[in-house]
Amino acid sequence: MQRRSEKHLCEGMTLKINGRRVWERIEELGRIGATEEGGVSRLAFSQEDRQATELVIEWMQAAGLQVRRDAAGNVFGRRPGEEAGPLVMTGSHLDSVASGGRFDGVLGVILALECLQVLEDNGCKTRLPIEMAVFAGEEGSRFPGCLLGSMAVTGLLPPDYPYQVRDAQGILLADALRQAGLEPERFGEAKRRGEDIKVFLEAHIEQASVLEQAGKPVGIVSAIAGPHQYHVTIRGRSGHAGATPMQGRADPMVAAAQVIQKVEELALTSKAGTRGTVGFLQAFPGGHNVIPAQVDFTIDWRGISEDERDAIAQETLDYLAQICKERGLTWTAEVTAHTAPVQIQPQVLEVLQTTAQRLGLDYHVLPSWAAHDAMIMSQICPVGMIFVRSQGGLSHCPEEFSTLEDITQGGDLLLHALLALAEPLV
Ligand SMILES: [Zn+2]
User: Fold this and answer.
1) What pLDDT score was predicted for residue 3?
2) Of 146, 190, 225, 334, which is the most exposed, with the fewest CB atoms less than 10 Å away?
3) Which residues surround ligand 1, an ion (CB under 5 A)?
4) Domains of the chain, each with CATH number or no CATH
């Protein structure tokens, strides 16, 4: 390997992010949509979300980036390289769940901005351009379906998608986009070509406590679990809770209870650590003294091993079919999400690990059990993820917290990984 001189600041590992600036920006964004409990509510395309995005655009422009917004509301800020492309991309999202935390998504956006600003301030030139991305509508807490912005970028949504979905108030996505100054009729133009993107890196809080338990400030993600979700409907025969004898009932709630237990049992005995959750259940007509005629519920499977995850999901459906047959019930199961798990490419892992080692960081390699924009971006380009330790593993709540020290280490890792991938020129 060629030995490099350490004279220039852009070489070696001397360049550092400004953790204090990162912290102040996270705090400033945390005031937009702040809740009394100390968290934030910034639902996609809401006034708060637009305000946060506009503030970040101001910072991006001040950092000398070439800023543009696509028709899905994603914002990109480019720092040109000596060559036109392919580019190295990094970023995350600014929207939150209702009553969420101040770090989820924001961290990856502000660290991306910080890295580009540090390169700019130090006059570091790269062969390839680096672009930061602020993806719109990641959380899916207003319109159905999450990861909206990155799905538009990867072409996973039809061009007329904004005319297909409404929020709980009945507002059409197209109208929400228009209110945000966007042109929904051009939604399809948000799609980008994978060959133009060399790699996408996302820094994110861990949202679990693996790093905390391992005593490590940062993590390098080895795989991203893919969700496989169903909406299940079981139909039976309604009746009076008192007058109807127990024998001969066709009660869909009891069948649902058995299936829910099966989900837990299969997940607990899974060899690949597949996780299963029933997070929604509704009975019709729904009265304390009525045997339900129908029960609807969801099943959410997450797995690093696609084969195992899908096999367990099928085993659950077979069990559901058997139970319904025995009890004289009918059922349907509609697949609402089916995404393959992402295995991070060895070359990207290698760059992140080597960079962490050269920085002397104490890191841990772990899978991500939550979905992220990086999971979607992997459909068109190689991806990598950096995790920052979450205090108490808490996330999607006002208590969400990461320390300035941990964030700074994650930021330095992102900075030098970006630099290595974009190839510094000195
Ligand atoms: Zn997030």
Assistant:
1) 43
2) 334
3) 104-105
4) 19-225+341-425 (3.40.630.10), 226-338 (3.30.70.360)
